[in-house]
Amino acid sequence: MSIVREYEGKTEKDAIDAAVEDLGLGREAFDVEILDSQRSGFLNMSKKVRVRVHLHDNIAVPEDAPAARPASVRQPVSSAASASAAPAAAAAGAEPENDFEHAICDFMRNLTAKMGTPMEPVIMYREPHKLALRLDGDHAGIIIGRKGKNLDALQVLVNVVSNRLAGSDFKVVLDTENYRGRREEQLIQLAERTADQVMNSRKSRLLEPMNPFERRIIHTALNNINDIGTKSEGEGLYKQVRIYHRAYEK
Question: Could you tell me which residue ranges the R3H domain spans (predicted)?
């Protein structure tokens, strides 16, 4: 069984450097999984980056290397995405393995550079017919855009390229600064809060327009509440979700 340890730092690089120093091994000896990305917390105080390192099976920690202090692991919010996490997912920070992955990473690298917001694509995980990329760099805010619409637009573009290279059944997912995960938590909280309002008022509520991925989070979050129903309304990519009381509206 491979050795797994966790480290913290002000930046992702600092956390990885701490792992290198603590283990007494080179960076190539382990894979890195990002647990918490750097972001502003309460009162804009910066939170530390937390990483989990997975040593390769053929690597042993030197006997004089100190044991890392274990870090507490935050339990993820239950959701459709977390429930269907891929068992074959690669550790974060994996390198491209084939011509297709190299082509997709090169496309995103060149595209963001031409936008004047250069970002470095890193493979987060692989699934059959799916590849997830994290864009690292100093322009995450611009890449994300208002309510993630820039990130969604970039994802559409990279999937056009992906479809030409690998066929329409292959999907590329983009993320940066753990935006997708943070957005998922926000949407689950919004869904539960709105459902409570509907239960109390018996009146339906219509949420803001959302992309298909976000709407799926809302539907799934409320799927097991007996008296609450959800349905999508509108046309185009960005539809609205209506949350209603089943006894008062169909």
Answer: 181-247
Structural domain tally of the chain? 3
Q: Reduce the secondary structure of 13-57 to three states and give it as a string.
A: HHHHHHHHHHHCCCHHHEEEEEEECCCECHHHCECCEEEEEEECC
* Residue 42 clears pLDDT 50, i.e. is over it: no
152 and 197 assigned to the same domain:
no
Assess whether 167 and 111 both reside in one domain: yes
Asked if residue 173 and residue 111 are part of one domain, the reply reads yes
Mean pLDDT of the chain: 80
- In the three-class reduction of DSSP (H, G, I as helix; E, B as strand; rest coil), residue 122 is classed as strand
Task: With cut-offs at 50, 70 and 90, classify the pLDDT of residue 13.
Answer: confident
Looking at the DSSP assignment, which residues form a beta bridge with residue 245?
228
